[in-house]
């Protein structure tokens, strides 16, 4: 009896994690460059059930031996193995803001390279940039955008132009070129929040991409599918909850009625 109870609880916990994940996706549906998470569910190892019984041969010495009959497999529950970001490129929309930029590569494997105050390098698809008080090009969270030599980019004001290859020019002179990194296996990147990704090793420069100024990549969250998946997760959660309630009633009856001394 308790095995089924634990199986139902594991189902509830896994569906709860899925609901939390999809809630976060929906909340970031309008976040530029956001990559939706996907849950990978996996079942615990199955148990093979056998019935052990004693068989007696009607002889003078009554020979006996223990016989084992195969019954079948028993599932022991499910769990969320990992959350995997979907790196598919989001829609590109025009903003008219000179500091906004979008990477167009069709695969979602190219990233802007940014640096925090501690000097740590991070990667992002969010090209909603701004200019700080010192004239440096930064993200809205204050991380510095880096050029191809790994230096911070100082543009002064918004009167600059970004070419398709990432070259930044001002008054006809080249200031810098954006450092666009390429991830051969995006699943090795670690999601940190605020649209940032961390790599174990420095990513190499990308070869094939196009930078579009005054454009921004939207989130790749599919709202209609996310809502449908959330309702499905809610129904699965409720189904496991009803199973848990049924086990609770059975245990209550076993403890208070069947085991009662008369």
TrEMBL record:
**One GO-annotated biological process of the protein:** bacterial-type flagellum-dependent swarming motility
Q: Where in the cell is it found?
A: Bacterial flagellum basal body
Q: What domain of life does the native source organism fall in?
A: Bacteria
An example of a Pfam family matching this protein is Flg_bbr_C
What InterPro entries would the database entry show? Flag_bb_rod_N (IPR001444), Flagellar_basal_body_rod_CS (IPR019776), Flagellar_FlgE/F/G (IPR020013), Flg_bb/hook_C_dom (IPR010930), FlgE/F/G-like (IPR037925), FlgF (IPR012836), LlgE_F_G-like_D1 (IPR053967)
In the UniProt record, which is one GO cellular component term? bacterial-type flagellum basal body, rod
Main site of residence? other
Keywords in UniProt for this one?
A: Bacterial flagellum, Cell projection, Cilium, Flagellum
Q: Which PROSITE patterns match?
A: FLAGELLA_BB_ROD
By sequence similarity, the record places it as follows:
Belongs to the flagella basal body rod proteins family.
NCBIfam families this protein is in? FlgEFG_subfam (TIGR03506), flgF (TIGR02490)
Name of the molecule in the record? Flagellar basal-body rod protein FlgF
Q: Which organism is it from?
A: Anoxybacillus flavithermus
